Amino acid sequence: MAFDKVISSDSHVVEPPNLWQDRMDSAEWGNYIPHLGKGGDQDSYDWWFVGEQRIGATGSVSAAGKRFHNPEEIIQAGVFEDIRPGAFIPAEHVKDMDLDGVYGGLIYPSAGLPLFGLEDPRLSRAIFQTYNEWLSDFCSGYPERLKGVGAVVIDDDIGHAIKTLHKAKDLGLSGVMISSYPRDGERYNLDMYEPFWAAAAEADMPLSLHVTTNRFGGPQILKDGKQALNATDRCNNDYYVRQSIGDMVYYGVFDRHPDLKVVSVEHELSWVPFFINRLDLYYIDRPDVAAYRFSGNTLPSDFMRRNVYHSFQEDALGIELRHHLGVNQLMWGSDYPHAESTFPESMRILDEIMVGVPNDEKQKIIGGNAAALYGFV
């Protein structure tokens, strides 16, 4: 029987202020433990800090619904007291899913996303392990409806990264994020990553490449509550994930690890058909620049329609092009409770972007594909 429930393949928590301070060793990490603080004498907003570095805001990450009625109120800055309770209380999160017509959700962080940009991998490992344990607790009361996606740094100690992957699975998490693009001077075509790809495939843990998780150089937050990433940057946020997926495809990661699953999260869809076309073109016509040869008669497009998934919000054009992407690879997500979220209008928006889509394909895209990949029942 086809899965007939709606799953958000991209939902979020907003981490409570004491998440890391209550759990990390203050004697070892001190002020480098992620914490909320004010921006200065003239700034009454709450900001996330690591040491003296301001790394995140509390405004737009909790502005769900404002885009429909009060878009002028959406700013990066905010105070934690204004955050919707469902962002950090599991029972309230489930109530909001019910309100929005959503059965289940894949849970990602908010403050945790730009933490991939920290330069010290030791600190990042401690932060992410703490977050993974907290996320496991968050989801544990509703295991059929909430499935967490943990976080792991993979660029400096592959052995530790594999241990973190296995620990995440032991904690009941359903996948892990890696940075959407690795640290400066490295790419996901390097041999150093091979043991991790193998471990993820064997553990059946999908790897997510979520927007705003580049390894170095997280978004810069300005004092007035605006973000250094402007509208042009946001319109091109698929650039780095294309680089990473292209490296994985062209250098044989999926050829050597056919069970590995990679998910592009919050980069939308419309760019993917042209990207697939280019992957095949250069593989066929330019073996001088695409030197790795796949087994059999396999083409890059075969890996894109077997190993790579795409979580999107409301890309109607991408839905029109769905057969060029592969219907089985598409997964809708609400992005709750962020400013871009479809909450609480998700069902209306899904009706609009799914016009003309046969019901069997619609059920896959709005829930069935995510259920199959992550084990919702």
From TrEMBL:
This is Amidohydrolase-related domain-containing protein. Keywords: Lyase. Residues 116-376 form the Amidohydrolase-related domain. It comes from marine metagenome. GO terms for cellular component: cytoplasm. Gene3D superfamilies: Metal-dependent hydrolases. One of its GO terms (biological process) is secondary metabolic process. GO terms for molecular function: carboxy-lyase activity; hydrolase activity. It holds the Pfam family Amidohydro_2.
